[in-house]
Design a protein that fits this description.
Helix content of chain A is about 80%, strand content about 0%. Chain A is mostly helical and about 45 residues long. The N and C termini of chain A lie far apart (about 50 Å). The mean pLDDT of chain A is about 90. Chain B is mainly α and about 250 residues long. Chain B is built from 7 helices and no strands. In chain B, helix 3 runs antiparallel to helix 4. Chain B is globular and about 75 Å long. The radius of gyration of chain C is 22 Å and the shape is flat. The longest helix of chain C has 27 residues. Chain C has a 5-stranded mixed barrel. Chain C has about 160 residues and is of the alpha+beta class. The chains are: A mainly alpha (about 45), B mainly alpha (about 250), C alpha+beta (about 160). At the A-B interface, helix 1 of A face helix 1, helix 2, helix 3 and helix 7 of B.
Chain lengths: ~45, ~250, ~160
């Protein structure tokens, strides 16, 4: 494969950037859901 | 929280419905995003043919072009949310706009980085100041400015309002990004896929590009939905804690 | 309801004002927004000693590679400019290919280039297709862009 280093870095970024966004967003939503379940007097919400 | 019952209903009914609805759709959205992105990028990296001039560097396109489409498409979404926020004062639009900003900035940065990685071996330069590259850099700065402005005020409503105005002013940059390659001489090549006329790209390259673009679109939608859900729940937590503190002055 | 309607009209008025202001500005500065000028532009208003970015196609048969550099002609069909360059040429550089060179105009009308960039066109095709098209005579690279991709499969 020609230009292997350039292609490899581009695909690492192309997979890594969306994955990093998705994981942090999932963590944030999970933390908020846990906290909400602990303090919400109306019980657990979706 | 002493506003009329009508208004408080308007404020809370929609976010609650949004949580239920998005919670039901999210798993399918996430699975579709993962499968289509993996298929499109895998096809582009391992199966699709090398270009007659660019060799294997053409494979960078399968990341670069979808990222570029999402950079502009995401900004369009940001502008729509901003208009909804300014005209109808929709509370969900405020939260969604604040969450689209960082994701759009990330995809724009991805577009710029992969473009640079293609430009060095193909053009002979990491970066040139032509109209296309410069206008995309301006798009990146607009995203960054929006992210900073929305979070710069103590009163979140003022931040949302200022961010919405900035986002709508920045819309003039979108046609400049799109048509810069047609209006002026640029080093960047014109579009291969046009609204009118046949694409100047072989079908065996067009297919993985289309699938990767669809996968990236679903990725963007998944990420923004998850972030907006988190923002809705965080706001409800803040509201509950404030109500508790107000009703419990001894604490 | 009327307040929302009014906000919508204010927003639309702002959009029209901002849009036309931007369009006028871009039209006024159009000459400065181009990344490169063509050999014809230099023939009509070129002055020696000026630093210019010249863009066009590398003329067929004009490339002479010398010690650590090259001399070639850049053409846009109507006129051409001789370019002298000492340095490494990019991968895509070849005869018939689009290039953009940055350099100073000499008194003899040639350009002493400090930078040569290859310009890629919007055509993406596998090697086999390109060769088949050239072989069947459907596409002559010297005379213009390849035919649309919908006709490529009829080899």
């Amino acid at each position: 494969m020609t230009h292997l280093a350039f292609v490899a870095v581009a695909y690492a970024l192309g997979v890594g950037v969306p994955l990093a966004f998705a994981l942090t967003a999932w963590q944030r939503a999970a933390a908020a859901r846990r906290k909400l379940a602990a303090i919400d007097p109306r019980g657990q919400r979706p | 929280m002493s506003s009329s019952p009508n208004r408080s209903l308007h404020r809370f009914a929609n976010p609650g419905q949004f949580l239920r609805l998005s919670g039901a759709v999210l798993p399918y959205l996430a699975i579709g995003a993962a499968l289509l992105t993996a298929l499109g990028l895998g096809w582009g990296l391992f199966v699709s043919p090398a270009d007659y001039q660019q060799g294997d560097a053409v494979r960078i396109m399968y990341v670069h072009v979808p990222a570029a489409w999402l950079a502009t498409g995401g900004y369009t979404g940001l502008a729509v949310c901003s208009a909804m926020s300014l005209i109808w004062r929709h509370p969900l639009a405020d939260l969604a706009a604040a969450e689209i900003g960082p994701v759009g900035a990330g995809f724009t940065a991805l577009c710029l980085a992969t473009g640079s990685l293609w430009g060095k071996p193909m053009w002979g330069a990491w970066w040139v100041w032509d109209a296309r590259l410069t206008s995309v850099l301006v798009l990146f700065f607009l995203y960054i400015g929006h992210v900073a402005l929305v979070r710069a005020f103590d009163d979140p409503t003022r931040g949302y309002r200022a961010g919405a105005i900035l986002a709508l002013v920045g819309v003039v940059n979108l046609p400049i990004v799109k048509f810069s390659v047609d209006w002026w001489n640029t080093l960047h090549q014109p579009a291969s896929i046009k609204l009118t006329g046949a694409p100047t790209m072989a079908p065996e390259m067009l297919w993985p590009l289309a699938i990767a673009a669809l996968g990236y679109t679903l990725c963007f939608a998944t990420i923004v939905t998850m972030r907006t859900r988190a923002a809705v729940m965080e706001r409800r937590i803040r509201g509950l804690l404030m109500a508790r503190a107000a009703s419990d002055p001894g604490a | 309801m009327t307040r929302k309607r009014r906000r919508l009209y204010v927003l639309l008025a702002c959009a029209i004002g901002l849009g036309s202001a931007t369009a006028l500005t871009l039209t006024a500065f159009s000459d400065n927004l181009v990344f490169f000028v063509s050999p014809s532009d230099i023939a009509t208003k070129g002055a020696s000693g000026r630093t210019v970015r010249l863009g066009g196609l590398v003329e067929q048969g004009s490339v002479q590679r010398g010690n650590g550099g090259a001399t070639f002609k850049v053409t846009d069909g109507a006129s051409s400019v001789t370019v002298r360059y000492a340095g490494i040429l990019p991968d895509l550089f070849r005869e018939g290919q689009g290039v953009v060179t940055l350099g100073t105009l000499q008194s003899d009308g040639s350009l002493k280039a400090s930078e040569v960039l290859a310009k890629h066109d919007e055509t993406y095709m596998p090697k086999e297709v390109a060769e088949a098209l050239k072989k069947s005579g459907q596409w002559k690279p010297d005379s213009g862009p390849p035919p649309p991709s919908s006709t490529w499969n009829k080899r």
